[in-house]
Amino acid sequence: MKKLNNVNNIYLASDNEQIIENFSIFENLNIVQNPFSYSAIFKELGIAVIDESLFFARKIKKSKKQTKTLSEESILIPNTYIVHSFHGIGLYEGTVVKRIKGVEKDYLSIKFGGSDKLFVPSEQINELEVYIGGENPKLSR
Fold it and tell me: DSSP 3-state assignment of 17?
């Protein structure tokens, strides 16, 4: 708030009564109805632009990838395009049983670009989502 003492005009975009009350100590306060996309102080102009979102936890925007989350109850059909959370777009080829260190487990076989292949343990199916974008996407490498 000290930074605002040397500002000629403060423009506050808020309809939150508590925020407005906190800023009412400034005589040069102007309340505006439309939100700003940012908050900033322009010293050379003597203006402060403050949006109420500055005082709330920011929401992280999720990617707009077109996917559908999978769970252990999901039924995957071979030749379905999937998105792996780390490796990207692949083609589900089916479930295979592999014996590793004497233990048999089910693995989801995922084909990626080139000759790349990944075997995802069935209990890690939450790392996969069904791709629901355009037809025949390019496989990740």
Answer: helix
Burial class of residue 20, CB neighbours in 10 A (0-12, 13-18, 19+)? middle
**CA atoms of 35 and 22, how far apart (whole Å):** 18
Four-residue CA torsion sign, 117, 119, 124, 130: positive
Q: Give me the tens of pLDDT residue by residue for the chain, a chain 141 residues long.
A: 677 878 889 999 888 888 889 888 888 999 988 877 778 888 888 888 888 877 775 444 444 455 556 655 456 788 889 998 889 999 999 989 999 899 999 999 999 999 999 999 888 888 888 888 878 889 998
The verdict on 20 and 76 lying in the same domain is no
CATH number, domain containing residue 124: 2.40.10.170
